[in-house]
């Protein structure tokens, strides 16, 4: 057995050497359901080329909702720069990435493609399982019942704990006997729904959660109190101990800037205010501050702009690395292109 393992390792090493000689890199991609696929791609290819290849493999048409995550300096959730060469982003092969939804559509029913909707439901399921998205006990039960309907069809008998865990229907730590009874009762009410119907109903309930589609960053407020800043399609939300303290829709925000560890929002004056408001938050590092700024600008650009625009350097602020953004098309562009006559089925 030791000899066979040694032979396998030798064969894989030989394969990787062969790939490097041909200018090709090997990427291991983790999908939403935990499975992995392997993709060979030119080392000089960009992050966008890799994302396109992953989406093509999964038959995803609405690619711009998605992105790729990789680990960097202990942070497991760093977005792959779509405009940068892969050989400059990664070092050791195989390159490990994780498929993720970067821009969560606020209205899942408006998605053009059923496969995109299915992948989105898997992404929300993973967010719940990994604790990035939390909800009430009854909402956990409602969502789990739709997962069972989508995966198993009409209810036939009792639902076991192992079945719920196998389909990632609900986090194990919130599952108890009473919760399981609630899930079974709700599941029985979905009889007749197709998998597509159940997935859409799942997303229609998930989209109402306060942190649906939000990318959350740790920070401190002006009083040095720990907070979380959540960026989503609707705007920027400030939370303390899981409680929403402030919501700032994109229409309220005039400018977003960062300087070293400081992240600043310039807010439009309300009808009762005479002057603009400046809110400054402290991030753990300058890198964290830049990532939050970049996340905020990319979300605003994707959901609010007609087309992507170049972000200029702010006068008086030091240049902290590249200000290149990973936003190829806006939501409006994507919708117009998806519904163009050339792309519609005959």
Automatic annotation (TrEMBL):
The keyword Ion transport does not apply. GO terms for molecular function: cytoskeletal protein binding. GO terms for biological process: actomyosin structure organization; animal organ morphogenesis; neuron differentiation. Residues 25-307 form the FERM domain. SMART domains: B41, FERM_C. Keywords: Cell junction. Pfam families: FERM_C, FERM_M, FERM_N. GO terms for cellular component: adherens junction; cell periphery; cytoskeleton; rhabdomere. It is found in: Cell junction, Adherens junction; Cell projection, Rhabdomere. The keyword Repeat does not apply. Its main location: other. InterPro entries: Band_41_domain, Ez/rad/moesin-like, FERM/acyl-CoA-bd_prot_sf, FERM_2, FERM_central, FERM_CS, FERM_domain, FERM_N. This is Moesin/ezrin/radixin homolog 1.
């Amino acid at each position: 057995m030791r000899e066979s393992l040694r032979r396998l390792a030798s064969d894989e090493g030989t394969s990787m050497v062969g790939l490097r000689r041909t200018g090709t890199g090997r990427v291991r991609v983790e999908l939403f359901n935990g499975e992995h696929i392997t993709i060979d791609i030119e080392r000089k290819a960009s992050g966008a080329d890799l994302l396109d290849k992953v989406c093509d493999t999964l038959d995803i048409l609405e690619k711009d909702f998605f992105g790729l995550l990789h680990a960097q300096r202990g942070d497991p959730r760093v977005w792959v720069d779509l405009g940068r060469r892969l050989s400059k982003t990664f070092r050791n092969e195989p390159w490990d990435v994780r498929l993720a939804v970067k821009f969560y559509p606020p209205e899942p029913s408006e998605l053009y493609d059923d496969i995109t909707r299915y992948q989105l439901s898997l992404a929300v399921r993973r967010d719940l399982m990994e604790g990035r998205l939390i909800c009430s006990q009854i909402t956990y039960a409602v969502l789990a019942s739709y997962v069972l309907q989508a995966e198993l069809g009409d209810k036939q008998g009792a639902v076991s704990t192992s079945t719920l865990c196998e389909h990632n229907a609900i986090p194990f730590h919130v599952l108890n006997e009473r919760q399981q009874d609630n899930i079974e009762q709700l599941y029985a009410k979905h009889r007749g729904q197709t998998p597509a119907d159940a997935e859409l109903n799942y997303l229609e309930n998930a989209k109402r959660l306060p942190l649906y589609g939000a990318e959350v960053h740790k920070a401190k407020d002006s009083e040095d109190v720990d907070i979380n800043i959540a960026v989503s399609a609707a705007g920027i939300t400030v939370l303390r101990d899981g409680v929403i303290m402030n919501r700032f829709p994109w229409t309220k925000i005039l400018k977003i800037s960062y300087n070293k560890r400081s992240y600043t929002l310039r807010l439009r004056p309300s009808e009762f205010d005479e002057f603009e408001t400046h809110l400054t938050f402290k991030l753990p590092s300058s890198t964290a501050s830049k990532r939050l700024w970049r996340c905020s600008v990319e979300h605003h650009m994707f959901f609010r702009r007609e087309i992507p625009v170049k972000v200029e350097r702010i006068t008086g602020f030091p240049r902290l690395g590249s200000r290149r953004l990973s936003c190829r098309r806006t939501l409006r562009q994507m919708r117009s292109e998806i519904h163009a006559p050339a792309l519609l089925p005959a």
